[in-house]
Specification:
Number of domains: 4
Structural class: alpha/beta
Number of strands: 18
Distance between the termini: 67 Å
Oligomer: single chain
Strand order of the largest sheet: 2-1-3-4
Radius of gyration: 30 Å
Number of helices: 15
Helix content: 40-55%
Largest sheet: 4 strands, parallel
Length: 497
């Protein structure tokens, strides 16, 4: 790049990995990028930063994705500047894809600490650097995992202790935390002595005012997890699950070793729990139910619980004694033990009540209906929250810049420059916040035309899919509820005020 060229523009990209590894701090990266840009007559118009995120998968980096999207627009920068190519991506396949995409839009990715020579060898050297970065990432990942595995075999603690235990700062072994330990003892008693199932245990704990460590209500799955955790018999379990905890790993991949903490459960109690808990945890393959599949067309928010407003879920209700099914709807929160009130409703009876309600409109000559829906669009609250978070981060950066000056790391001139840049960003964000606060609420009106007779025919048509029936009904029904005590259904249609 020629320093005498006309002013070019760039995006500055900063990334700090989960373990900091060999890299420099975000502030230092930004400082070096600013210095390099100034030397090469480049103006950095926007900054993007991902903190504590691995570079192996670009889809996990929100700031990176936003940067790529803006770089593809008509008013794009000339360059994307990064401290190293590894800050841009550690996965070479993704690196090639994104760089090719940017190159088509005349945007060049530049590593300021890894200058490439001019000529035909530049792309080759760039690929070699990327290969080395990816190899380092793979090797580091393997070394970290091996270290964790060895620590697990030796009974080392690598994660936060479960409910009933606490580890204070500086402690190596978790100790029993009595306010939570009594909850575990209750769970154990209800399961072993009272023979409650996990759902009943969750419901009982919630009724008694107990909450999880996060302040949430207990659910059946939480109770099952607690009962299956060998930590309570003095063991340490590592590598139980993968993919965010949803998929359980094979038993041979899980390490269980002796810990040094005091157990809350005896081996005899554990044997009883282990035998009984099996029927509540059948061999799950970890398959998720598709969000597009509705077991019944009234599911998906159309049938609501009158107690908590949650969706009523369709259950087959298969009898264990007779070869019959008793399908019904139940509140999913009740099914998980989150609230005690049972509002189950027979599925055939519910469907009959719905069809009768629709037929009443036809009988009274109100089958052909045109109605309008008023939509109110307010400024996004998410944008405001993101701006507030950015202001908090900038305040921290300003404090760090001050500390760097006081500690003699930065000169007075460097500190003044950093402070001015941060103040400018703060001013810009505050202006955007003010714009959000004064943004007008937009109200639009949309007109709909429906024929209730056609909807009734669709609901009775067995050749139509559940999703097609759900879509037809959702065009006129806002939601419905069932009062079990009065045995009454209430229907709330979109065309009724």
């Amino acid at each position: 790049m020629n320093q005498n060229e006309s002013l070019k523009t760039a995006f500055g990209y900063i990334r700090v990995s989960t373990h900091m590894q060999e890299e420099i701090s975000p502030e230092a990266q930004k400082h070096e990028l600013q210095k390099w840009a100034k030397q090469h007559n480049i103006l950095i118009t926007q900054w993007f930063q991902d903190n504590g995120i691995s570079g192996k998968k670009a889809e996990n980096r929100t700031a990176f994705q936003n940067m790529i999207a803006l770089a593809k627009e008509k008013d794009h920068p000339d360059y994307i500047l990064a401290w190293k190519f590894s800050r841009f991506a550690r996965n070479q396949e993704e690196s090639i894809v994104y760089k090719s995409l940017l190159r088509k839009n005349n945007v060049q990715v530049v590593s300021i600490s890894e200058p490439l020579p001019d000529g035909p060898f530049a792309p080759l050297i760039e690929r070699i650097i990327e290969w080395m970065d990816e190899y380092y990432s793979i090797r580091l990942s393997g070394e970290v995992k091996r270290g964790m595995k060895e620590k697990a075999k030796k009974g080392g603690y690598q994660s936060a202790p479960p409910l009933g235990y606490r580890r204070e700062k500086g402690d190596t072994v978790p100790a029993i935390y009595e306010p939570e330990a009594k909850i575990y003892r209750l769970i154990k008693k209800y399961f072993i002595q009272d023979e409650y199932n996990p759902t009943t245990i969750a419901r009982t704990l919630n009724d008694q005012g107990y909450r999880t460590r996060q302040g949430n209500r207990f659910e059946a799955r939480v109770v099952i997890y607690i009962l299956r955790n060998p930590f309570y018999i003095g063991k340490i379990r590592w590598n139980r699950s993968s993919h965010g905890g949803y998929y359980e790993n094979s038993p041979e991949d899980v390490i269980v070793s002796d810990g040094q903490h005091e157990p809350l459960c005896t081996n005899e109690e554990w044997d009883i729990i282990s035998k009984r808990i099996k029927k509540y945890t059948p061999g799950s393959t970890g398959r998720r139910r598709s969000k597009t599949l509705l077991p019944h067309y009234l599911s998906g928010g159309l049938f609501r619980c009158p107690i908590c407003g949650a969706s009523m879920c369709y259950q087959r209700g298969v009898s264990k004694k007779l070869p019959r099914a008793y399908p019904y709807f139940c509140c999913w929160k009740y099914a998980k033990g989150i609230h005690p009130e049972n509002v189950n409703a027979s599925a055939p009876k519910t469907e009959e009540a719905l069809l009768n309600s629709l037929q009443e409109f036809v009988d009274h000559g109100h089958s052909d209906i045109t109605y309008t829906v008023e939509k109110i669009e307010e400024p996004s609250g998410n944008d405001a929250a993101q701006y507030e978070q950015l202001l908090d981060k900038l305040a921290i950066r300003k404090q760090r810049a001050k500390e760097a000056y006081l500690d003699g790391i930065d000169t007075k001139e460097e500190y003044r420059e950093n402070r001015e840049l941060i103040d400018a960003e703060v001013k810009s964000i505050k202006e955007k916040l003010a714009t959000l606060e004064t943004a007008a609420v937009i109200t639009t009106t949309e007109e709909f035309h429906v024929d209730i007779r056609e909807i009734i025919l669709k609901l009775k048509d067995d050749t139509l899919s559940t999703l097609e029936k759900h879509t037809a009904l959702a065009s006129i029904l806002d939601y419905m509820e069932y009062d079990k005590e009065k045995d009454e259904y209430s229907f709330y249609y979109k065309f009724e005020e």
